[in-house]
Amino acid sequence: MEVADASSALESVLDEVGSAVVADRDFLETVLLGIVGRGHVLLEDVPGTGKTLTARSVASALGLSFSRIQFTPDLLPADVTGTNIYNERDGTFEFSKGPIFANVVLADEINRAPPKTQSALLEAMGEGQVTVDGDTYELPQPFFVMATQNPVEMEGTFELPEAQVDRFAVKTAIGYPDQDGEVELLRRRRGRESKSPSVDAVLGPEQVRSLRTTPETVHVEDDLLEYMAAIARGTREDRRVDVGVSPRGTQRLFEASRARAVVVGRDFVTPDDVKRVVGPVLAHRLVLTPDARVDNVDATAVIADVLDEIPVPTV
Fold first, then answer.
1. What SS3 state is found at 121?
2. ∠ CA 11-17-23 to the nearest 5 degrees?
3. Nearest one of 205, 165, 180, 195 to 288, comparing CA atoms
């Protein structure tokens, strides 16, 4: 798919999702950045702000199969991936697919499940496959996870392990709507009988697969590659950071920057593209020092300080 066609398609998706979700346009664009960049998306906010509705609406607009997994403390890995079931008729075991076998998987309130269950997603998110009892099963393509989580301060939550957080291309928050937005939400609810709004399909599986390969055609100058690498190294050298951005994170910054260029209809990346995506892509990958956490240091502020110290290349 050409960049101009991909940008037009994404604009239609944004318009369709925006008709159902009362949210900032930048937020919806950030969600699409993770998808176009062939990554996964983590939405963190308090309950009731529209995280689940956003995930469901995006899946519907993209015309993809959708599955929702409600994570709870008693959820088992087999409840996610599926399991082998004994068939008494012919005396064999048959694999029964779990809800992970869908194009778009909503892992709802992912941090309410213990780490053992959360780890069931690692292979699926990293390799696009699951292994059960020694047998490997390919997941449908395209495949991506949209996970929601409540803030870790809330009761009944487990902090996600760093290895899993690193699998998410972007992390963002929807936030509370402003006064006008909340009135618009009520106005839309008044105009329909169902509690949740419906979203029509704008694209289909083949178009989404083509769309996700479009960033590969976007040009990135060597100066920008050095700029991205310098940002990653800057996070590792900051005294407030215990563990900085990994090389995987640097690659995700590169991929999200190209995806951002596609969204705005450009076939080349600019420094502004990098600045636009660097927060959602890198902030959740930082592990702050105990002193920094005690001082309530925000990872986003660390990223901003690192950006201020690095010269911006001219492209």
1. helix
2. 105
3. 165
pLDDT tens digit string along 162-199?
777 888 899 988 877 778 877 887 888 777 776 677 78
Residue count (the chain)? 315
Tell me the torsion sign for CA atoms 174, 175, 176, 181.
negative
For the chain, strand residue ranges (E) read 41-44, 66-70, 82-87, 92-97, 104-108, 129-132, 135-138, 144-149, 170-172, 241-243, 287-288
Question: Are the C-beta atoms of residues 74 and 80 closer than 8 Å to each other?
Answer: no
Nearest-angstrom CA–CA distance, 226 and 262: 21
Take residue 255 and report the two structure tokens written for it. Answer: 């991929």
The burial class, CB within 10 Å (0-12 / 13-18 / 19+), for 7 is middle
pLDDT tens per residue, range 81-102: 888 888 888 888 888 898 999 9
Residue partners of 200: CB distance under 8 A and separation at least 6: 16, 60, 61
